Structure formats: structure tokens, C-alpha cells
TrEMBL record, chain A:
GO cellular-component term (any): nucleoplasm
The protein's name: Pescadillo homolog
Superkingdom of origin: Eukaryota
Subcellular location: Nucleus, Nucleolus; Nucleus, Nucleoplasm
Free-text function comment from the UniProt entry: Required for maturation of ribosomal RNAs and formation of the large ribosomal subunit.
Keyword Flavoprotein: no
Keyword terms of this UniProt record: Coiled coil, Nucleus, Ribosome biogenesis, rRNA processing
Pfam families tied to this protein: BRCT_2, Pescadillo_N
GO molecular function: ribonucleoprotein complex binding
TrEMBL record, chain B:
GO biological process: maturation of 5.8S rRNA from tricistronic rRNA transcript (SSU-rRNA, 5.8S rRNA, LSU-rRNA); maturation of LSU-rRNA from tricistronic rRNA transcript (SSU-rRNA, 5.8S rRNA, LSU-rRNA)
Subcellular location: Nucleus, Nucleolus; Nucleus, Nucleoplasm
This protein's name: Ribosome biogenesis protein BOP1 homolog
Domain BOP1 N-terminal: 81-337
A GO MF term: ribonucleoprotein complex binding
SUPFAM superfamilies in the record: WD40 repeat-like (SSF50978)
Record's keyword annotation contains Repeat: yes
Organism the protein comes from: Sorghum bicolor (Sorghum)
Role: Required for maturation of ribosomal RNAs and formation of the large ribosomal subunit.
Gene3D superfamilies per record: YVTN repeat-like/Quinoprotein amine dehydrogenase
Length: 619, 681
């Protein structure tokens, strides 16, 4: 009798009834495997792990309810329609019925995924929680070559670019970016939106190669859903900051591939318009102050008057022009407006982020990856320009405080600004302080770039530079607070100087602590030795007979004995555990051991590197 | 003859150098005739030009007409005939004589006279002079210029288009025009009707569907919770991708970069263990290349999302030490042996077995060196040595205090000897007991050979029990009259019972589940335990029936010991496990302790204290607390107490035997290093 014998006529129950293998599911739904896959991807149905795999261990099981869920979806009917449509077109072409073929091709069956988005993510927070993969994927496809005849349609790549820029613009505008990290794989960003930490990866701004080892059908199915999801998420986010969603961009900037910048301007313009409604008089005053600067003032006023009306494109342009004002003049209108409205709503974190690069002006050299920096710097309150057309200000601008360059040498140098490598921006963002720029100057090898996602204390190993940063942070916290009244120009220098002072004192303290530690360790060891001797006298008497004969070997023996003792205790403890618990215990021990080994390895490497470096220095 | 053009070019030079010797060989004709140069040849004979010309006129292309060469020597170098008179043979085989050489002056004179001389060619092969016609000369000159040989051939004639494009104005067929040419098509009409109907019914639409951006505020207020709940099964969100560590940085700290040796060593690892990502360091951001696996990793993530079964896994984040059971403190469980107090040295080979006398004063040991020794426990003095001439596998004191008899398994057989301790009177009695009459073996009348023969051992004044096969174990009944031996390969006579006073043996257990390993008596009742490789059989001796069968679940039992209370049994196995059976509770082990890494050689209970010990080949002995409560509801308490080390391994064997002192909490261990150790509190 087979193991899972069921008498005839008896219903299936338990795992046999609850779970269904994939082949059976495909047969049940009467679709092809490819369509089944697409359905699963779009509906978010995934296999389950039954307690008991009735049909065999190597099979994939789906929950019967999930399959029923798929079977009742209108999408399945739509997919069948598409299949039929394709067949019709094929037939028409084969019969040389061009009319019919054209007519059919003009009206392919389409479907929308908005219902699915709502079904999978009933609340907005749910959607945000699962946004990581979506953003990574969209950013990846945005970096693919938009070339006709490749496996990915150009239209979709452009859509991905647009969506990713819209997302970045929102994050930048609301200053919700928290962490950044340049890895070999690309640049990681972490933002916090509505309390959800969202991490995504953008590839480096270099040409990606379409490889053959991936199935684009699967990826495009995912992308289809992700595009829709991100579209709705962006809509909701833009709505929440009172900006019209499908943003209309300045075509000139768009053509210059400065979409992100265009978007940022659009957003700030849009939100300002809204604010304008409520506080028009205040803004008007500001405007009057600025009116001397350019001849745009008239237009500005026009804009103000029309503010309540619906935004059309020409008006938008004006708004953008008007937005150029604050970038030309520091102490700007934009900042004023922003501070008056948004500050009370922001939490501390956002405030901190917003103020990080405040009063700093950045200029990006040609060779610097523009997109990521144009995203990051405004997100932390800085103003930024770049070399090229459409840039808000030129390289010769006197107010630029930092120029970001990534070349071996800088030929022409303005003394008023610092020339730093891009990593400085990323490190500052992660440390949330303005780091001293010495290590990051042009032509130097920058200090190691550390991941902000690692909890060093939990890991058990703290890289050297992390400690330096920690010290600088502590210094900044103590020193910056009592320095609110100092002018903008002095602030940086004094800050750095103060930091350095602070650092030195900290270092002294550290040294002292280290000394203390050493002393303590020495005492401990002494004590241990005494204990060890006592132990050895108990355990083997011969050892005690000639204690002075072999001091080293004896201490070795003692260490061995102590180790043995510990191991014995361990063994005795584990002897009574159940087998399952013993396995668990062993696994945990092994894990700990592994971690320890890893740390040891890091320490060893560090030591080797240090010693080799010092020996080099001596030579 | 490719040099003709060159000749032409250099003509001027040649003419200027008028006196050149062979300029006479060069002719330049007027007009279309080009200059030709031929080898300066010898003077032609006076062959008539008229007949040559006639032959040229008849000349045709056919190869058949070609005159065969006069000479038949074939294509051989003419040098071969340099010194001969002849130059070959004609068709009839006659020698062809060389002609006389003409003088140069004669030849010159003849050339000067003859106007046709320029057309004459000397044929070296046939040794004759040939005159070519004017036409032939022309053809040759044309060929030299790369023209067609004949002048009247035009290589580029004008193209003549033979096709006529204009209609002649007459039909091919004179049939009248058919009617269908004038009647509207039925099928066309049908198609039109169809289309019209389709348009009217709206099946065909001409306006293109509008492209609308269908984004709207999908998520409204989050207030009403009923709508905001996900339907269907509980949703398991996908695990977030792992966040990058320091090592993934484009510019990691120096310590995260593996050395070249480490990278090379990765190649030796299994592919699953090999690190997927090898950290690299770039000096600046501009030198970072595109990540070639970006697409692949995105794809892998997609696969994970829709192909991997998701389950909720509980991760416990606890200190592993908290998993250990709470044990009573060792101090409360005192006394138990923990330190080595004495070493009994004297044996020269591994000590296989030890036994302590019931009073606790004497210790007997048997070793592979063929000796049995009796030691005084308290001093460690060796009292007696018997040389029995064979491996002593097992040794046991008679548990009766007034019968100091030792039972030892020596080689094949069992030896009972007087231990010669105790008072005179006692010794006398023992001697009586060990006296055996050489009686006529009444067993011989049976057709079967007896399992055991009781023989007198002359040398040692004891008794030998000669078994048919090798004995492995001997165990006394607590009263000291009966004892049992185990013959593992003895088949139906594997477990034997002997009575000392009657000198009688029998084998009551005919059928056992597997090979017997050990057998022992119940400490107080008339019960008997036989341990086979996997089971422990409990027999009632009085009723002669099987009472219980304990299933150990071990691979191979090596030893057994019964708790003094009689209800608990411990069993040691060759896979290093120790099973505690509570026979009242179940036939399965109450607790299994995996404490040794190698075979357990011996397990033993203490008679008085709640202690038990196990000795193993891994050179350790475990002492455990094993408390059995009189309250039946309370399960026995087992606490491992101490690992006793000290024996060294020899030949891969460790501790071979362990025995408790009958009264004190002391443990004797016998090692393969031929030392007996006494561990005390």
C-alpha cells in the first residue's frame, strides 16, 4: 500500500489539499508556463513551503488559495485575449490581409495594473516598505543603453529614467535622504519616507552591457509592475507636498540630460506657488527686495498674480526663471520660504540633514559623476552647479566654497574654494558633519570609504577611520552648538579648527585610557597566572616539583590545562542536552567562532599592512 | 618576349650608340609596324621564301595540320648533344647531322643581302632556320601589345536591344470580352457589406485609442481600516536584500582586501564556500568600472522573489550558554572522585580488567602480559603475582566476603584461583571449595560434548573451566555461589551459568537476539540480564522466562551495569553513547548521553553512592551523579560531574576498565598504558 493511500471517494485534506504543485497549478489554470510566471510576478504569488511535501521533495508547491486567487483574476482572461490577438495578427499577415493586420495591430488588448497595486499594497506604507526592489530595478533599467533593437524598448528605459528622477527629486526636496555609500556595484542610497527606511542601489553612471545570461522576459514582467507601482507612489508623494504630479519639465534642461535639476526646480517652484497663496504678502516683500537684481521682477509679479490659476507650461518657465534668483544670491528667497513653512513639521533627523550643507556652494567638474551629486547635495541643503550648459552658476562664481574634482591634478586653482574629491561629500553625508578636507584634496588617495550600514559595535571590529570620524563627530557636537552667531565665511574654518583642537584633546584622552587599559590587563594577567598555578598544583603534582626548571613550558601547560578545563565544563554541560538543542548549540558556537575568525583575520591584515607601511617609511 | 616594349623605349639610346654589335638585329618598320627583336641567329640556309609563303597560306588552326618536328629526341636539354655530331634522330631513326657553323662575316653578308632576313628564326632544336610570314609577324606584334590577334575582331561592339517595346496593336486572342468584366463583383460586395456592418456595429473603429496617463491618487486616506486590509492568505514580505558592508566599498580599508595568497586559496574551496565577492580597492572614483554583474544580480533577485518559497523563520538571538540545562551545583553532589590519588604500576602490558574485593581492601587486576596481580588498595603495594600464561581478559572477585576467590578469563578459558588473602581458616575453606575430584566424567555417556569441563589447574591450585570457544566475560552472583560466563560465539551455548559448590554448569538461554556481549545477575533478585549487541534481555531465573527486552537503539553494546536497586540499568556502547534505562518506566532509554568520542569500554555503578562511571577508549572516564529516588513518580536525576583524565593512549586504546570502590567514592581505572589509577574525592 502506498504511503499516502487515500480510500476512493475520500476527500483530500491536510497538506495534500492545501498545496498544489506548480505543474498541477499550470494545468488547472489552463495557461502556459510563461503566462503563469507573469501572473505570479504581477500578482505577487510565491511558492510556499508545506509542512509535508506530499508529492515529493523536489517539487515547488503553491498554496491552493493562491492559485484560486490567480484563477479569479481578470488578468488571466486578458492574457488569453492577448494570445488570441497575436494569433489573429499572425493569421492576417499569413493571408496577406494587410488591412486587417494593421487594424488589429492598432488596437491590441491592454491591461492596467493599478488594481493589482492596490490589492498587493492596501496602504501606502505597505507599498513603501516593499519599495527597495522596485527602486533598485527601475534605477538599473534607467542605466541601460536606450538603443533601438536591443531587448529592452527605448520607451521603457526612458520611462524608468523619468520615474527614477522623479523619485530622487522628491527625496532631495524633502531632505529625506539619510545614508549614501559608493560600492563597487554602484551607489547605495538610504532614505526615510514616512518612517520606512528605503534602500536602493543605482549603478555607476557608465555604460551597462546587456548580457545573455538573464531572462529578460522575467525582468520585464517585474519592471512592468514596478513602473506602475513607482508611478503611483510618486503621485502620492508629490501630492503630499502639493506638487502636480506628472511634472512638466523645461525641455532645454531635459535635452541637456539635467532632468533631475529640472525636476528639482519644478518642485520648488510648484511648492512655492502653493505657499504663495497663503503668504503672498510676505513673499511679495521679499520679491521687492530682490527686484533690483534682474529684470525678471515684472514677470515674477505676474506669476504671483496668476499663482492661483492652473499651471501651464509658460508660467512654469517663468517660475523656473524666477527660481534662478536665489541661486545667484545667497541668503535666498527659497530658503526663507522653506524655513518659515516646513521647519515645524520636520523631525530632528530631517533638520539635521537639511542643514548639513547649508551655506555651502558646490561646483562639479566635468569628470565628476553629476547625477548622484546633483541628487545628494541639494538633499542636504547645499547649492550645486556643474560645468556645462544650463548650469545655474559658472565656475568663476566667487561664492563657491567647494569644487568637486576627480582628476590627478588641478591646474587652475581659486584660492577661495576647496578642491575635494567626490568621496568627501559622501563621507560628510554619512558622518553628518563637515569633515576636514585634508585627506580628500586633489591628487591624494582618499581615506577609506566606509559603509554606513554596518553597526561596527555589533560587528566587533571598528575600522580605524570609523573611529576618527566618531571622534570628529563628538568634537562637532560639543563645539558647534555654542557657535551659532558666527558669520558664514568664518564658520567653516573655525569649525574645522575647533574640530582639530577637539580631536587632539580626544586623542590625549584616548591615550590615557589605553594606558589604563594596559595596566588593567597586566593586573588581570597576573591574577590569572596565580590562579593557573593554583590549579596546576591541584591537578598534577609533578609539575609543581620543578616549577623553576621550565617556566615557559609550564605556563604553556597551564594554559592548556585551563583550556581543557573550560572544554570539560562545556562538554559536561552539553552532555545532557537533547540532540536538537545540541545541534543548535553547536551551530551557534560555530557561528560565533566564524565571526571571531573573521575579525581576527581583519586584525591580522591590518597589522601586516601597518607593519609594512612603517617599514617602508623607515626605508 | 616581354622586353620588346622596353626595347622600344630604349631605341633612342640604341640608335645613339650606333656601333653596337647587334643593332643589326633590330628593325624598325614604318607606320603601324612596331619594332621586333629576335635572337641573333646564325645564317639561314638558302631555303626558298616562296615555298614557305605558300605553306603559310595553307596554314590553319587545326593541330592535326601542324608539322611534326623533325627531331624526335623529345624535350631534353640540347646540351646533351653539345659534343656530338648529330642533334637527334629523325622519325626513321637516322641521325640528324649538325650543320656546319657559318662564319659571322658570311652570315652578316647574307643578312645584308636578304630583305626577308628579319622574319627568319633559328630553330635550335631542329637545327634549321624557319621563316615566318608577315601575317604571323603582325599577329605576334599585336599579341605583344595586348591586342586581339586578329585586326578585324571588335571587343567592344555597341549593344543591340533586340526587344520590341511597342505594341503591335493586335490582341493575341480574338475571343470576345467576358461578362464578368462588366458586372460588379459579388465577393467584393460581400466584403464591403461585412465591413460596413462591422463599422456600424462598432467592431471596427477608426479613431486611435487615446493614450492617457492613468496615474491617480491610488491610496486615499488611511483612516478606514476595513478596506486597507490585505485579502487572502497572510502576506510574507520578501526579505530585504543584504546591505553592503565595508568590504563592498570602492575604497575599503586596507584590511578588507584579501592578499593574493588568500585569493588563490579561494580556488581550492568548494564552489559553494567560495566568497562570491572579492573586495577591490580603487584609488579614485573615476577609476571604478561598471559592475559587470549588475544585470545578473538584479535577475537573481527577481528569481528569488518569485521562485523561492517564503516561510517565516524564527530567529533566536540568545546566548548559547542559556541552552544548557540548569544543573544542581557540583558541590552539593559531593563526594565523587575527581583527582588522581594513587597509581598502581607493575604491569607491563595494557591492563584489561580490574576488580575490587568486596571489603575494599584488595584490588585484583589482569593484564595482557599474562599476569594477575593483587594490590593493596591503600598502599598501592603489589601483594601477589600469578603468572597464568595468557591474556587475562576479565577478572572478578567473588562478592562473598568469606570466599576470596578470583575468577579470571585467561585465554580461552576461565580460571578460578584462591586469592590467598584473608585468614587461615578462610583460606582452608577456599582450598576445599576449589578441590575437584577427577571423577569419571558421567557426561561422556551423552552423545553431546559438554559445554564446559571442570578441570583442576595443577600449577596454581585452582580450577579451569574449559570452554569450547573463547570466553569474554565472567560475572558473579551476589551470593558468591553462582557465576556466569559469556561466550560470544557460542551459539546456543553462549551464556553459561555455573555453580561453584556443585561444580556444575548449564546453559539455559538457547536463543538470543544477536550475539551476547555481557551478562550479569540482578543485585538482589533472581533475575538475569543478558546484553546482546542491540538489546538487553531480562530473564526471570526462577520461572525461566523472558521478562523484558530493553531496546537500546545503539549500534553495539559493549558493557552493562545494574543499579544496586535493580530497576535501573546503564549500558555503554561502542559509538560512545551511554544509555540509562529505567526498567519501570519504559523499555526505551530514559536518557542517552553522548559523552565519549570513542568506544565506551566499561560502565559501572557505585554500590553505595549515587554515582556511575564510564570508561572509554578516548582516554577519559566520566563520573556522573545518578540519583534514583524511592518515589516512583520522580525520575532519576542524572548530572555529569567530572571528566577524569590522566591515562595516555597506547595503540589507540585508552581506559579499558573502571570500577568503584565498594564503600568509598573512589574510582579505579585501568588503562592501556599498563597503569591502574585510583581517583579519590
Amino acid at each position: 500500500m502506498p504511503k499516502h493511500y487515500r480510500p476512493a471517494g475520500k476527500k483530500k485534506e491536510g497538506n495534500a489539499a492545501k498545496y498544489i504543485t506548480r505543474t498541477k497549478a499550470v494545468n488547472y489554470l489552463q495557461v502556459s508556463l510563461a503566462i503563469f510566471r507573469k501572473l505570479c510576478i504581477l500578482k505577487g504569488v510565491f511558492p510556499r513551503q508545506p509542512k509535508k511535501k506530499v508529492e515529493g521533495n523536489h517539487k515547488t508547491y503553491y498554496h491552493t488559495k493562491d492559485i484560486a486567487f490567480l484563477a479569479h483574476d481578470p488578468l488571466i482572461e486578458k492574457f488569453r485575449e492577448i494570445k488570441v490577438h497575436r494569433r489573429k495578427v499572425k493569421k492576417a499577415v499569413a493571408k496577406k490581409n494587410r488591412d486587417l493586420a494593421d487594424r488589429l495591430l492598432n488596437r491590441p488588448p491592454t491591461y492596467k495594473l493599478d488594481r493589482l497595486v492596490l490589492e498587493r499594497y492596501p496602504t501606502f506604507v505597505d507599498a513603501l516598505r516593499d519599495l527597495d526592489d522596485c527602486l533598485t530595478m527601475v534605477h538599473l533599467f534607467a542605466a541601460l543603453p536606450a538603443v533601438d533593437g536591443e531587448r529592452v524598448e527605448v520607451k521603457r528605459i526612458h520611462n524608468c529614467r523619468r520615474l527614477s528622477h522623479e523619485w530622487q527629486a522628491y527625496i532631495s526636496r524633502t531632505h529625506s535622504l539619510r545614508k549614501t555609500f559608493i560600492s563597487v556595484k554602484g551607489i547605495y542610497f538610504q532614505a526615510e519616507v514616512q518612517g520606512q527606511k528605503i534602500t536602493w542601489l543605482t549603478p555607476h553612471a557608465l555604460q551597462q552591457v546587456l548580457t545573455d545570461d538573464v531572462d529578460f522576459n522575467v525582468m520585464l514582467s517585474f519592471l512592468e509592475f514596478y513602473e506602475t507601482l513607482l508611478g503611483f507612489v510618486n503621485f502620492k508623494l508629490y501630492h503630499s507636498i502639493n506638487v502636480n504630479y506628472p511634472p512638466i519639465l523645461d525641455p532645454r534642461l531635459e535635452a541637456l540630460a539635467a532632468e533631475l535639476y529640472a525636476l528639482c526646480r519644478y518642485m520648488s517652484a510648484g511648492s512655492r506657488r502653493m505657499i504663495g497663496n497663503s503668504q503672498s504678502d510676505e513673499v511679495m516683500e521679499d520679491k521687492d527686495e530682490k527686484s533690483k537684481a534682474d529684470g525678471i521682477t515684472e514677470e515674477e509679479k505676474d506669476v504671483k498674480n496668476k499663482a492661483s490659476s492652473k499651471a501651464d507650461e509658460s508660467e512654469l518657465r517663468l517660475a523656473q526663471l524666477q527660481h534662478q534668483l536665489p541661486t545667484n544670491e545667497p541668503g535666498a528667497l527659497m530658503n526663507l520660504v522653506e524655513e518659515s513653512t516646513a521647519d515645524d513639521a520636520d523631525d530632528d533627523d530631517t533638520k539635521e540633514c537639511k542643514g548639513l550643507f547649508k551655506n555651502l556652494k558646490f561646483y562639479l567638474s566635468r569628470e565628476v559623476p553629476r547625477e548622484s551629486l546633483l541628487f545628494i547635495i541639494p538633499a542636504f541643503g547645499g547649492t550645486v552647479s556643474w560645468e556645462g550648459e544650463g548650469a545655474p552658476f559658472k565656475e568663476v562664481d566667487e561664492d563657491i566654497t567647494h569644487q568637486i574634482v576627480d582628476r590627478p591634478t588641478q591646474s587652475h586653482v581659486f584660492l577661495s574654494r576647496e578642491y575635494v574629491q567626490p568621496q568627501w561629500v559622501f563621507d560628510c553625508v554619512n558622518a553628518r558633519i563637515i569633515l576636514p578636507t585634508e585627506g580628500y584634496l586633489v591628487g591624494r588617495v582618499p581615506p577609506p570609504h566606509l559603509s554606513p550600514f554596518v553597526d561596527n559595535d555589533a560587528e566587533g571590529y571598528i575600522p580605524e577611520y570609523a573611529e576618527t570620524i566618531k571622534r570628529l563627530q563628538a568634537a562637532a557636537r560639543n563645539e558647534v552648538l555654542p557657535l551659532p552667531g558666527i558669520g558664514d565665511e568664518d564658520l567653516d574654518n573655525s569649525l574645522v579648527a575647533a574640530m582639530m583642537d577637539r580631536t587632539e584633546s580626544n586623542e590625549a584622552a584616548e591615550k590615557k585610557r589605553k594606558l589604563e587599559m594596559l595596566e588593567k590587563q597586566y593586573h588581570d594577567e597576573l591574577k590569572m597566572e596565580i590562579d593557573g598555578v593554583a590549579f596546576s598544583s591541584l591537578s598534577n603534582k609533578e609539575a609543581n616539583k620543578s616549577p623553576d626548571a621550565k617556566d615557559d613550558t609550564q605556563s604553556d601547560h597551564e594554559a592548556d590545562a585551563i583550556k581543557q578545563e573550560e572544554k570539560d565544563d562545556d562538554d559536561i554541560g552539553t552532555a545532557l542536552m537533547s540532540r536538537k538543542q545540541q545541534g543548535l548549540y553547536k551551530a551557534m558556537k560555530m557561528g560565533k567562532e566564524k565571526k571571531k575568525e573573521k575579525i581576527e583575520l581583519l586584525k591580522k591584515r591590518k597589522k601586516n599592512a601597518d607593519s609594512s607601511a612603517s617599514s617602508k617609511k623607515r626605508h | 618576349m616581354g622586353h620588346s616594349d622596353g626595347e622600344h623605349v630604349h631605341e633612342g639610346d640604341d640608335l645613339s650608340a650606333d656601333d653596337s654589335s647587334w643593332s643589326d638585329g633590330v628593325w624598325s618598320e614604318d607606320g603601324d609596324e612596331e619594332s621586333l627583336s629576335f635572337e641573333d641567329s646564325g645564317e639561314g640556309s638558302g631555303s626558298d621564301g616562296e615555298s614557305d609563303e605558300a605553306a603559310a597560306a595553307e596554314e590553319s588552326d587545326s593541330s592535326e595540320d601542324e608539322v611534326a618536328p623533325r627531331n624526335t629526341v623529345g624535350d631534353v636539354p640540347l646540351e646533351w648533344y653539345k659534343d656530338e655530331e648529330h642533334i637527334g634522330y629523325d622519325i626513321d631513326g637516322r641521325k640528324i647531322k649538325k650543320r656546319d657553323r657559318e662564319g659571322r662575316i658570311e652570315a652578316y653578308l647574307r643578312n645584308a643581302d636578304d630583305a626577308k632576313n628579319w622574319r627568319k628564326i633559328y630553330d635550335e632544336y631542329n637545327d634549321e632556320e624557319v621563316q615566318i610570314t608577315k601575317d604571323e609577324a603582325k599577329i605576334i606584334s599585336r599579341l605583344l601589345k595586348g591586342k586581339t590577334p586578329h585586326t578585324n575582331v571588335d571587343p567592344y561592339p555597341d549593344y543591340v536591344d533586340w526587344f520590341e517595346y511597342e505594341d503591335k496593336g493586335h490582341p493575341l486572342s480574338s475571343a470576345p470580352e467576358p461578362k464578368r468584366r462588366f458586372v460588379p463583383s459579388k465577393w467584393e460586395q460581400k466584403k464591403v457589406v461585412k465591413l460596413v456592418r462591422a463599422i456600424r456595429n462598432g467592431w471596427i473603429k477608426f479613431d486611435k485609442p487615446k493614450e492617457e496617463r492613468n496615474l491617480y491618487l491610488l491610496w486615499g486616506d488611511e483612516a478606514d481600516t476595513a478596506d486597507n486590509k490585505r485579502h487572502g492568505l497572510s502576506y510574507i514580505p520578501p526579505p530585504k536584500p543584504k546591505l553592503p558592508g565595508h568590504e563592498e566599498s570602492y575604497n575599503p580599508s586596507i584590511e578588507y582586501i584579501p592578499t593574493q595568497e588568500e585569493i588563490d586559496s579561494y580556488q581550492l574551496m568548494y564552489e559553494e564556500d567560495r566568497p562570491k565577492f572579492i573586495p577591490k580597492r580603487f584609488e579614485s572614483l573615476r577609476s571604478v568600472p561598471a559592475y559587470e554583474k549588475a544585470l545578473r544580480e538584479g535577475f537573481d533577485r527577481c528569481l528569488d522573489l518569485y521562485l523561492c518559497p517564503r516561510t517565516r523563520k524564527k530567529r533566536i538571538n540568545i546566548d548559547p550558554e542559556s541552552l544548557k540545562p540548569k544543573l544542581p551545583s557540583k558541590k552539593d553532589l559531593r563526594p565523587y572522585p575527581k583527582t588522581c590519588y594513587l597509581e598502581f604500576k607493575g604491569h607491563t602490558s595494557p591492563v584489561k580488567s580490574i576488580s575490587v574485593e568486596i571489603s575494599g581492601q584488595w584490588l585484583a587486576s589482569g593484564s595482557c602480559d599474562g599476569t594477575i596481580r593483587v594490590w593493596e588498595v591503600e598502599t598501592g603495594r603489589c601483594l601477589k603475582v600469578w603468572n597464568v600464561g595468557g591474556d587475562v581478559r576479565h577478572i572478578a572477585w567473588n562478592p562473598s566476603p568469606d570466599r576470596p576467590i578470583l575468577a579470571a578469563v585467561v585465554g580461552h578459558d576461565l580460571l578460578l584461583i584462591n586469592a590467598e588473602v584473608g585468614s587461615e581458616e578462610m583460606q582452608m575453606r577456599v582450598k576445599d571449595l576449589l578441590k575437584i575430584d577427577e571423577m569419571a566424567p558421567q557426561d561422556d555417556t551423552d552423545d553431546k560434548k559438554p559445554a564446559v569441563r571442570w578441570m583442576k589447574h595443577e600449577k596454581l591450585d585452582g580450577i579451569t573451566l574449559i570452554h569450547q570457544k573463547a570466553v569474554s566475560n565472567v560475572e558473579w552472583h551476589y551470593k558468591g555461589d553462582y557465576f556466569t560466563t559469556v561466550v560470544p560465539t557460542g551459539d546456543t551455548r553462549a551464556v553459561l551459568l555455573h555453580q561453584l559448590t556443585k561444580k556444575h554448569s548449564h546453559h539455559p538461554f538457547r536463543k538470543l537476539p544477536g550475539l551476547p556481549v555481557a551478562a550479569t545477575f540482578h543485585p538482589s533478585q533472581k533475575m538475569f540480564f543478558v546484553a546482546t549487541k542491540k538489546f538487553v534481555q531480562v530473564y526471570d531465573l526462577q520461572k525461566a522466562q523472558l521478562v523484558k527486552k530493553l531496546e537500546s537503539g545503539l549500534r553495539e553494546i559493549s558493557s552493562i551495569s545494574i543499579h544496586p536497586g535493580g530497576d535501573n540499568v546503564i549500558v555503554g556502547s561502542k559509538d560512545g553513547k551511554l544509555c540509562w534505562f529505567d526498567t519501570d518506566l519504559s523499555t526505551r532509554p530514559y536518557k542517552t548521553l553522548k559523552i565519549h568520542s570513542k568506544d565506551i569500554t566499561r560502565v559501572t555503578f557505585h554500590r553505595k553512592h549515587p554515582l556511575f562511571a564510564s570508561a572509554s577508549e578516548d582516554c577519559t572516564a566520566y563520573v556522573c551523579h545518578g540519583m534514583v529516588y524511592s518515589d516512583l513518580n520522580q525520575n532519576p536525576l542524572i548530572v555529569p560531574l567530572e571528566i577524569l583524565r590522566g591515562h595516555s593512549s597506547s595503540d589507540g586504546r585508552g581506559v579499558l576498565d573502571c570500577k568503584f570502590h565498594p564503600k568509598q567514592p573512589w574510582l579505579f581505572t585501568a588503562g592501556a598504558d599498563s597503569v591502574i589509577r585510583l581517583y579519590c574525592d
